[in-house]
Amino acid sequence: xxxGIGSKNYGDGPFSLTATTDSGLPxxxxxxxxxxxxxxxxxxxxxxxxxxxxxxxxGNENYESTSVExxxxxxxxSQVVTFTPINSKTYGDTPFTMHATVSSGLTVTFEVFLALxxxxxxx
Length: 123
Description:
Layout (H helix, E strand, L loop, with lengths): L7 E2 L5 E2 L11 E6 L2 E4 L2 E4 L3 E9 L8 E10 L5 E3 L16 E3 L21
């Protein structure tokens, strides 16, 4: 029996995998695909995406070998952008620097959207 893994989030800590067999023989684990690594029975997430893990029991003179796979999803981590407010500006003011940070440590980019005045037409 290979215990269910359930969905995870990028940034979640390493966790133990658990599988048992009727034979009581040891079980080994392998990443078949996806952003993760395994050391013994400890799985470490290395990115977002779909991960497939295989649990294998090699068998012996009395038991056949067997394996089972599980696939689970690693969701993208959330992040928070903190944007320093901009004071009112007037056309012709000198250029200024904008400041923002993001909890993920990724690069922040800025984009300016032009706001046009509304034109009201009466009939």
